Hints:
Elements: H1 7-22, H2 24-32, H3 39-53, H4 61-74, H5 78-90, H6 95-109, H7 111-127, H8 129-132
Pfam family, one: CMD
GO molecular function: peroxiredoxin activity
Organism: Halosaccharopolyspora lacisalsi
Amino acid sequence: MSGATDDESRRAEGMAVRREVLGTEHVDRAQERTTEFTAGFQDFITRYAWGEVWSGEGTDRRTRSCLTLAILAATGCESEFAMHVRAARRNGVEPEQIREVLMHVALYAGVPKANSAFAVADAILSENADDHG
């Protein structure tokens, strides 16, 4: 896991990693939409998802992105999947690697899940082709 040992350190490290992976604009929008009701959840994902898991030293960010894409596609979380396709490209995952991840999803989690994920990824990759190609 990360080197952060207390909540405040995990929060700071998590926010930095969250901005690097998802982009500052996305994180700023999420922060602006935070309400009293959602504040605890935002703090939780910043500290634990981003400040611990995504900050861990055992796996590089490209691999984490591929794992995240596979899990989100397999579980049918389309809006989170779309966000992480963008994050994966930011982390250096090539479209061909995303395709391979989704082929594994088709094989192990089902063709309908992969079909939906392919449609989402294709739309995102098409709209951003000039940015990364």
